[in-house]
Amino acid sequence: MTVPVLSLRGISKRYGPLQVLKNVSLDVHPGEVVALLGENGAGKSTLSGIIAGSRTPSEGTMTWLGQPYAPATPREAIDNGIVLIHQELQLLPQLSIAENVFIGRWPMKNGVVDRAQMVRRAQEQLARLNLHLPATRKVEGLSTANQQLVEIAKALALDARLLILDEPTAALGGAETEALFEQVRKLRSEGVGIIYISHRMEEIRQITDRIVVLRDGERVQEFADSATPVRTIVESMVGRSLDRMFPPLPVPKNRPVLQISGLGSPNGSFRDVSFDVKAGEILGIAGLIGAGRTELVRAIAGADPVSAGSIKLEGRELKLRCPADAIANGIVMVPEDRKDQGLVVGHRIGENIVYANLDKLGRGWLSPRAKRTFADEAVAKFGVKGRSGQLASDLSGGNQQKVVIAKWLTRDPKVVVLDEPTRGIDVGARASIYDIIADLARTGVAVIVVSSDLEEVLGISNRILVLAQGKQAGILNRDEANDVSVMELATI
């Protein structure tokens, strides 16, 4: 094999008494795609940050192109040709796509920014990813999937020698994912080394050459063949036998809780959608990116307006002007973007849980003890691995998602909407969230799950509503739903 472009030896990282990485060694060769796998909290992001210059190791050494390498800043790593594409979006919404792609690296002409060249070069990167948007458009208002593609275009424009892709397809649909894979294969053929982090096992099989597994901050396993059985890989990640992923689903009652009739949006993102969700039922919503899934459930949760149709809860028509109206009536939503829309990440876990339940805790001054007791009970009930006094920003993605779920489920809602509930979450945490969803349905709550992961929507749903280009393409019962029948409807 060729000489590695990047070598790590004995990398460790401590935060006070907490050791998050222990003696990790890793090589990446030119033209190689190495999968870096592990549960949330295994140390993947910390290791990526060390390589990309945003963190410094407590121990260990690195070499880059055969020379000692110890970047003090991300800028230094980028200047060396190492680029990290974060799972969490880092775009400036008020700037254009082109400005975001070239921020800090403006193409210049006669001492001023050459905007024509900047837009042209940004448009070329968007075309590589089959993203058909004008580079002059502001990032604000773009879907999460399109923002992710802009982040990837930004990295491609840097002509990197090593790319670290952290959950790059978490918000992408099938077509966008395949466009990204085409670029990964092209970069690999050009000798670019790639570290690929993902919780989607099928992607790992398709796109990577070798698999390295971290668990509790240590390198525990390497698989030289990406065709290694998924079960074997996952069991090395979690350190235990994996008996099942999806729980048995309860049988829904015959009583409809939520009834949607002829619902349409002012901007046409969805139109003439009708369905009901029964007590104890989990209704999955599937469709390609841009099909109107998120827009539909945001309208049901009062976050977006409707221009036609009705929303009825237990036979009573609702007029929802804002999310507070929906919450007051018993409809809550776990949003797609947990950090921007679901949590105040700079505040404590307990504070986040209390914010959504102030009316339940009483009026006027609330004692710190009452708030702490309430939050501690929610943390314990929903299996959050953390203390209520910890900052939400300190948690892994899976535990952050559990906090968002906990703060709403403590309200004892009648309808729960979950938009991409396991986006960017590891296998172990994903299974526990599926258990929470199934347990919720067993109590008689009506549950709606939106997911771009077809295996997920098939595994957790009693029925599946399929949207295609904003229209209702059909509703499939569990016994007739499979990947073929869903995709046939999604592509009508």
List the helices and strands and how they pair.
Elements: E1 6-15, E2 18-28, E3 33-37, H1 44-51, E4 59-64, E5 67-68, H2 74-80, E6 82-85, H3 97-102, E7 108-109, E8 112-113, H4 115-128, H5 144-156, E9 162-166, H6 174-189, E10 193-197, H7 201-207, E11 210-215, E12 218-223, H8 230-238, E13 256-264, E14 273-278, E15 282-286, H9 293-300, E16 308-313, E17 316-318, H10 323-329, E18 331-334, H11 338-342, H12 349-355, H13 358-361, H14 368-381, H15 397-409, E19 415-419, H16 427-442, E20 446-450, H17 454-460, E21 463-468, E22 471-477, H18 483-490
Parallel strand pairs: 3-10, 3-11, 6-9, 9-10, 15-20, 15-21, 18-19, 19-20
Antiparallel strand pairs: 1-2, 1-4, 4-5, 7-8, 11-12, 13-14, 13-16, 16-17, 21-22
InterPro entries: AAA+_ATPase, ABC_carbohydrate_import_ATPase, ABC_transporter-like_ATP-bd, ABC_transporter-like_CS, P-loop_NTPase
GO molecular function: ATP binding; ATP hydrolysis activity
Organism: Neorhizobium galegae bv. orientalis str. HAMBI 540
Structure description:
Its main location: membrane. One of its GO terms (molecular function) is ATP hydrolysis activity. This protein is an alpha/beta fold. The protein has two domains: 6-238, 3-Layer(aba) Sandwich (Rossmann fold); 256-490, 3-Layer(aba) Sandwich (Rossmann fold), CATH 3.40.50. The chain has 18 helices and 22 strands. Helix 4 packs across helix 5 (144-156), helix 12 (349-355) packs across helix 14 (368-381) and helix 12 runs parallel beside helix 15. The model has no long low-confidence stretch (mean pLDDT 88).
